[in-house]
Amino acid sequence: MSDSEQEVSLPRSQSESTAEARKSIDEPLCLVHHHPGYLRIRSEAFLHADDDAPVVAAAQSAAETTPGFRSWTRNPNTGSVVVEYEPGTLDVDDFLKHIAKSSGFRGVESAANASTASRQELVGAFLDGVQDVNQVVRQITGERADLRELVPVALAAVSVVSFILNEDRGRLPQWSSALYRGYRIFMQWHRPEVRARERAGRQREDRAGAAKSRGRPR
User: Tens of pLDDT along 152-200?
Assistant: First the structure.
């Protein structure tokens, strides 16, 4: 067989990946949330897709080659992507249009203008919204705290106020109920840290017991 008859497998170029993406997408890129320096986009094309899928690769490449880009974080379970950028270095509308055009989307659409969503999309939007609020809280607190700490603290404060006001608390919940809920939320959201501390405590107790056993006279 001559060299011309042999099939040679070559890596696809970015333009070939973009062309394939354009043939497979007939939907707009959805802007879910925007905060200076941080935005979240979503698409059915990103849902359960691999990182090297043509649409994902083309969109990520378009974002990464834009001046001011910082990071790209995709959640394949919700089809959303968090893009962080340097505030003031790019126009967000132009940036999103560039991503949409490069990866073959039919323009850009805001989540507020989107059509009726399915239950899965609504759940994903809710989870994305909570993550967005949490991200903003972390930025405001300088990465020192987020909703996992602030929500229990707020409930503990409500418990103190309710206890002081007693019967005149109005619409405030029972102080013991608010305190218990704050405790449960804190312990639930920090379960890995709590378990790690428990393991460390047991290990210290075991080492102390072993040391005492070795020190006893026979």
Answer: 777 777 777 777 776 565 667 776 777 777 777 777 766 777 778 778 8
96 shares its domain with 155: no
User: Can you give the residue range of the structural domain that contains 113?
Assistant: 14-140
In sequence order, which ranges of the chain are alpha helices (DSSP H)? 14-24, 54-64, 92-103, 119-140, 147-165, 175-189, 191-215
Q: Which two tokens stand for residue 36?
A: 């200076």
Residue 127's CB: how many other CB atoms inside 10 A? 14
Q: Which two tokens stand for residue 90?
A: 């790019």
Only one residue has tokens 């993406």, namely 21
Examine the domain organization and report whether 87 and 127 are in the same domain: yes
Q: Please name every residue paired with 38 in a beta bridge, in sequence order, or none if there are none.
A: 35, 84
- Joined tokens for residue 187: 């312990």
| The model's pTM | 0.49
72, 101: one domain: yes
| 20, 54 Cβ separation under 8 angstroms | yes
Residue type, 178: A
The last residue of a domain, from among 95, 110, 140: 140
Instruction: Record the tokens describing residue 192, joined without a space.
Output: 């890995």
